[in-house]
Amino acid sequence: MKQKLKAQIKERVASIAYNEKGFPSPFLFKDLKKAALKIIEAMHANTEILVVGDYDADGVISSAIMAKFFKSLDYKHVRIAIPNRFMDGYGISKKFLEKHHAPLIITVDNGINAFEAAQFCKEKNYTLIITDHHCLHHDKIPDAYAVINPKRPDCDFIQKEVCGALVAFYLCYGIHQLLGKEKSHSSELLCLAGVATIADMMPLTFFNRFLVSKALYFLQKESLGAMGFLRQREVFRKRSLKASDISFNIAPLINSAGRMQDAKMALDFLSANNFQDGYSLYERLKACNMKRKMIQQQVFEEAFKHAMVGEKIIVAFKDNWHEGVLGIVASKLVEATQKPSLVFTFKEGVYKGSARSSPNIDLIDALNGVSSLLLGYGGHRQACGLSVGKNNIVSLFETLENFDFKVLPFYEKEPPLTLNLKDIDRELLEIIEMGEPYGQENPEPLFQAKNLEVIEEKIIKESHQILRFKDKECVKEAIYFNAERFLKAGERVSVLFSVELDECSNEPKMFVKSLL
């Protein structure tokens, strides 16, 4: 069994490896050199620069990268502005620019569909540089001075599916090169781009895999500002840092500010210069995240109960649902039903919502096909934001239910290997670690064990359970997070699980994913 697993992991790693040396040139990005030269020209003239970010983790981290970059150059004529989810809506807009503007405006993690804002900048004689990674609407781009986006058909960067922070990082990288700096990128900015890659659920393949591996290495070895602080606080027992530590412990904290209040709190945390400021903001982020969890669970239960459920699609809507948790609730509906899910709340006369899908369904293609029913939309193939008029919500469900969804090629997970408990040892852990970092399009190996006897059980924190399983030859400890039901001593079960190092005992441990 172990040899079969080793062969599977070796084959997969070979198929997703980044085989180039070092970092690709920043000037593979269309318009990046043009944008970098304009920014250098603006700095030489002491021109005021406005950076417009986004309120999710990728957008906040992109904003932090730009702030830290300009600070490293001791350039003080720069402001960072992140639209408030609840008051400003998503991304750069004419309304937002009427309140926040400058002669030179740079977007990070947004702007690719900001056609009205680009026209407004042209009328006001503002220079607009767009950096983004979201899908283009029908391959059209706004009329801006420069548009840097790997999804442009004429962009030669080596990977299309990268996060917004990586694009921002590369803009800084390009400016550094043109300025003739010896060190073209800092380890802190690299770490931030790696964290955003995980947080924004980019595929951990090819260059993304290389970047994340570097980021995890530096986070492990160096104390890097707020990221180092978070690493100590959130995963302080870890001997080795994994991508899952970022996605489960760190990314939700950064995301929580924009979901619940204002993303500026997370930006201030990432920019904190001392422990006292950092700790205060960290505590506020933790409180935001706890509130998010409570509201999310309530909305999910209501959505699951009252959704319109079709053969192909799920649509759920209610007037008072919290806008900040709609995307997570949609994701949980996809997990529960394996169907694309759209979740809306009613605000200012329209339904605002989030859509999520499984890896093989192209949501952008579907929304392009029903765009006449929508007031606006944008995002990725598996994750979109959208708005729809009050009278069109049912029509949207009916139209999507009859839509011929575009099916994408996607990574097929290997079926779980069957293990005996005696197989769970250090050798198995070493084989599993060959495939790190695990994440999107490189999922961790899952295993199954059948007819196990529960010999001990203990409930912790209301929804988790510590267990001891026994088969014919061996006893092993396990933990079952968010248990679908609590197991009882004496019963026999079959389980799906992963295997990880238990940092307390320094032994391999079963992490139960579901009952079979």
Notes on the structure:
- Helix content is 40%, strand content 20%.
- With 516 residues, the chain is α/β, with parallel strands linked by helices.
- The chain has 3 domains: 256 residues, Alpha-Beta Complex (inorganic pyrophosphatase (n-terminal core)), CATH 3.90.1640; 95 residues, Diaminopimelate Epimerase, Chain A, domain 1 (Roll); 99 residues, Nucleic acid-binding proteins (OB fold (Dihydrolipoamide Acetyltransferase, E2P)).
- The two termini are 20 Å apart.
- InterPro entries: DDH_dom (IPR001667), DHH_sf (IPR038763), DHHA1_dom (IPR003156), RecJ (IPR004610), RecJ_OB (IPR041122), SSDNA_exonuclease_RecJ (IPR051673).
Observed structural traits:
516 residues; alpha/beta; inorganic pyrophosphatase (n-terminal core); Diaminopimelate Epimerase, Chain A, domain 1; six-stranded mixed β-sheet
